[in-house]
Design goal:
- The chain is of the alpha/beta class.
- The protein is about 35% helix and about 15% strand.
- It has 8 helices and 8 strands; from the N terminus they run ββββαβααβαβααβαα.
- It has a 6-stranded mixed beta sheet. Strands 7-8 form a two-stranded parallel sheet.
């Protein structure tokens, strides 16, 4: 597997040390291929986690708060089981070390992971799904889940709960240049079939953007963080926090977005988060 992280290589898959008195948010996002024509046609191939440690009191400007992160991507499709084991361990570590574990429609990520999981990874994923289901009855002072698709409505006036729309309404610039001309599945295929590094890097950055922006929404929803009225450019924070991790971060298509917050109302959505297309009604043979 290809592992990128803000942490040293030796502990890239471990949670970062927790500062004394800090409240930790762990945000996880999974990408997968979609094939509704076959059972369990959704196959995970990439995930990331963003770790955000915040003071227990006050609302710091999140533009000034450093974050830690790890990104995992399959080197080849046969590594899916190992990716799922790693993701399951990350989810378990997040629950053990974080006050808030978050994701955007995280129930779908967990369901896809469990549907494809090797036997030894299933218990951790089942435990996570049970915690997600019980999140609204959980003690807010103990480790619990916040799902930003379903639990941030008190911040919003718009109807859409797509992550890009939630972020845009709240003033988070999450413009996704990776999807301007080519879809996420197409970029992934270019990596799997042709070894195209740019395809993999684009998807990795897209995925990390999902994790980090979800962490910011969860922090805001919990009253633990804020940003300036003119918005927060998440791409700029990724460029700084993940500098050197991927060549895509130096591409002019990406760097052109770093000057000013400019939320895009037409931001594309990663297919793993897009609504499932409605099935066509059966055609009569008579």
């Amino acid at each position: 597997m290809i592992i990128k992280s803000s942490a040293p290589t030796a502990r890239s898959l471990q949670p970062p040390p927790l500062r004394t008195g800090a409240v930790r948010i762990a945000s996880i996002d999974v990408e997968w291929t979609k094939n509704y024509r076959i059972k369990n046609g959704q196959r995970p191939f990439c995930y990331s986690v963003a770790w955000l440690d915040l003071p227990a009191h006050g609302q710091p400007d999140l533009a000034d708060v450093a974050f830690e992160w790890t990104s995992v991507y399959v080197q080849e499709p046969g590594e899916m089981d190992e990716l799922i084991r790693t993701a399951a361990a990350t989810v378990a570590a997040a629950a053990e070390t974080s006050r808030i574990v978050t994701g955007h429609q995280f129930c779908s990520d967990l369901a896809v992971l469990e549907a494809n999981a090797p036997t030894d990874a299933v218990p951790r994923l089942q435990a996570a799904r049970a915690q997600w289901k019980a999140r609204r009855d959980a003690d807010p002072d103990e480790s619990h889940y916040v799902d930003t698709r379903f639990d941030a409505g008190h911040l919003l006036t718009g109807k859409s709960r797509r992550l890009v729309d939630v972020c845009n309404e709240l003033g988070l610039d999450v413009t996704q240049p990776e999807l301007l001309k080519v879809t996420m599945p197409a970029w992934h295929r270019r990596w799997v079939e042709d070894g195209n590094d740019e395809g993999r890097e684009r998807v990795s950055v897209l995925n990390l953007r999902h994790s980090l922006s979800t962490a910011y929404v969860a922090a805001h929803a919990a009253g633990l963080g804020r940003w300036a009225d003119d918005g927060l450019n998440v791409n700029r924070l990724i460029a700084e926090g993940a500098k050197g991790a991927w060549g895509w971060l130096e591409n002019p298509v990406f760097t052109n977005l770093l000057e000013d917050p400019c939320p895009s109302e037409d931001a594309a959505l990663s297919p793993s988060k897009a609504p499932r297309p409605q099935a066509k009604p059966p055609t009569s043979t008579r």
